[in-house]
Amino acid sequence: MNKKTWLLLGAYKPPCMSNDTFQLNCMTTLDKCSSKYDNYILLGDLNFDLLDNAKCSPLNDIMDVFDLSNMVMKPTCFTFQLKVEVPSNKTKWCSYRSFKDFNADMFNLDLQSNLSKLEHNDVNTMCNILARFLTLLQIHMLL
């Protein structure tokens, strides 16, 4: 996009990881990225409650230091109970994503191959990048 470099970062903070550890690792990574790329997008499941300032202060500090903006405007995590009654003569199947067979090297090769084919002078390049990325996620992280 106008010869600017972009990096799409994915991150996950397990609930058991301390906020201090996450903050240190995230800031170190973003510091390295900001010196190599003009722009970057951080996507992920960071397990911070943005509705509680005390609980999300490490994430707010990261966003302040790196001049990032949060695009999430409402809670993305919720709990619920689901009661399903299934007749005894029918089998109920559930689907889930298993990362046991995920091959990161194949995913990265496929990602490089597919994203390099995009026209960089296209106004809709960002939408195309995200669409291709999501398609590749579906392929490599099958339900």
Could you walk me through the main structural features you see in this protein, from its secondary elements to its overall organization?
With 143 residues, this protein is of the alpha+beta class. It folds into 2 domains: 1-79, no CATH class; 86-143, no CATH class. The chain is 38% helix and 10% strand. The protein is built from 4 helices and 2 strands; from the N terminus they run βαβααα. A two-stranded parallel ribbon has the order 1-2. The two termini are 33 Å apart. The model has no long low-confidence stretch (mean pLDDT 78).
Question: Which SSEs are present, and which pair or pack?
Answer:
Layout: E1 6-12, H1 19-36, E2 39-45, H2 57-65, H3 104-115, H4 125-140
Parallel strand pairs: 1-2
Concise summary:
By secondary structure, this protein is α+β, with helices and mostly antiparallel strands. The chain has helices at 19-36, 57-65, 104-115, 125-140; strands at residues 6-12, 39-45. Helices cover 38% and strands 10% of the residues.
Helix share of residues? Answer: 25-40%
Largest sheet composition = 2 strands, parallel
Distance between the termini: 33 Å
Structural class: alpha+beta
Give the uncertain stretches in residue-range form.
none
Residue fraction in strands:
5-15%
Identify the overall geometry: globular
Mean pLDDT reading:
78
Q: Using only CA atoms, what is the Rg?
A: 19 Å
Number of helices: 4
Defining key terms:
alpha+beta; 143 residues; 2 strands; 38% helix
